[in-house]
Design brief:
The chain contains four helices and five strands. By secondary structure, it is an alpha+beta fold.
Length: 129
């Protein structure tokens, strides 16, 4: 169902700026209106300033006024083989949790998962009171 979305994630990985790790990551975020926002990892010599592909795609969408999403595909590899799954990091999962429900689809090379599979608990606005 999301095969084309995964292909877009692989394509986005081709734009990764990863001269330090050599690990290319691409994300393709499907909005509720059918638009696709892509992102890639952008590394920095000061590693803490690196941005992941998933957050890059989310922030790009939000900066254009889009905050409703249907799915995200993530592809990562240090070679041209994107057949192994690349699971989003905790920071990216938390950002996705800000905008998406527990059943939000995350598409990896080996299939479809739910956000709650990787982030069973998240920090939300209910803790800010």
């Amino acid at each position: 169902m999301y095969g084309d979305l995964f292909k877009e994630a692989v394509k986005a990985a081709g734009y990764a700026y990863c001269k330090y790790s050599g690990f290319h990551v691409g994300a393709a975020l499907l909005s509720a209106d059918g638009s696709i926002f892509t992102g890639c990892n952008v590394e920095n010599a000061s590693y803490s300033l690196t941005i992941c592909a998933e957050r890059n795609a989310v922030f790009k969408a939000v900066s254009e006024g889009v905050t409703a999403f249907s799915a995200i595909a993530v592809a990562g590899s240090s070679t041209s083989d994107f057949s192994r799954p690349c699971v989003p990091c905790g920071s990216c999962l938390q950002v996705l949790g800000e905008f998406c429900g527990r059943d939000f689809p995350i598409i990896l090379a080996d299939g479809e998962y739910k956000l709650s599979d990787f982030l069973p608990f998240s920090f939300g606005k209910e803790y800010l009171i």
